[in-house]
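Priority: medium. Attachment 1 of 2:
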């Protein structure tokens, strides 16, 4: 992905590249390199009010989900990156296994949540159109077949997981994936276009254990297909 398209994609997710703080620290003569400290990640604001997606998602769920769960991921990501910097400075890499796991978990959670919020908009009744619709029909047989596959995959995803429509540039095709936690069952190289959170905190207050009612509401009433199409265009280099 080119720098321009990467920026476009990250802008769509709301995650963003937060830049680098100048003035790195020298690790010592044996290393002879300066490591720059990255700016902290920030919880993005929602593009709508907390109650804007009612009656499909209640205000309390949105507030808790955004502030506590996504916010917790951002805090965990910042904490992990600081620990990496401290580890590099000390030269003691014995904690690398845990920190690599934490980076994948918290970093993926931040990206997926940032994508999730912008995938939705209030009172939408839109449909896939243009090149996105063409690829959905090419890769899944029809838009309706894609919907059925996405719902089946999302409904049967692990209890702590996500359903995902993604684009793989090397394969030049759309794919439906299940994600376990935030980082497992991923296919290397995919770009998330549309994600549905099926961790119970995403829907339990409204739907209790009726996950399929939540995913049906998401598919039928909440998806911003213009946002998905913009991600697809950026992922393909458009």
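Attachment 2 of 2:
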């Amino acid at each position: 992905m080119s720098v321009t398209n990467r920026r476009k994609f990250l802008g769509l997710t709301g995650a963003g590249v937060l830049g680098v703080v100048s003035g790195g620290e020298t690790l010592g003569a044996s290393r002879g390199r300066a490591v720059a400290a990255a700016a902290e990640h920030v919880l993005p604001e929602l593009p709508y009010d907390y109650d804007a997606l009612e009656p499909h998602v209640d205000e309390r769920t949105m507030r808790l989900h955004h502030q506590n769960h996504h916010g917790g991921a951002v805090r965990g990501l910042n904490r992990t990156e600081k620990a990496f910097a401290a580890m590099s400075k000390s030269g003691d890499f014995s904690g690398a296994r845990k920190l690599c796991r934490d980076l994948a978990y918290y970093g993926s959670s931040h990206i997926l949540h940032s994508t999730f919020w912008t995938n939705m908009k209030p009172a939408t009744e839109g449909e896939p159109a243009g090149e996105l619709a063409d690829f959905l029909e090419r890769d899944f047989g029809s838009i309706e077949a894609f919907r059925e596959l996405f719902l089946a995959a999302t409904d049967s995803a692990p209890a702590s997981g996500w359903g995902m429509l993604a684009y793989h540039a090397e394969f030049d095709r759309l794919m439906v994936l299940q994600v376990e936690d935030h980082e497992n069952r991923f296919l290397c190289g995919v770009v998330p276009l549309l994600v549905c959170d099926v961790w119970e905190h995403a829907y339990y207050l409204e739907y209790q254990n009726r996950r399929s009612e939540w995913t049906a509401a998401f598919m039928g009433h909440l998806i911003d297909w213009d946002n998905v199409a913009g991600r697809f265009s950026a992922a393909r280099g458009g």
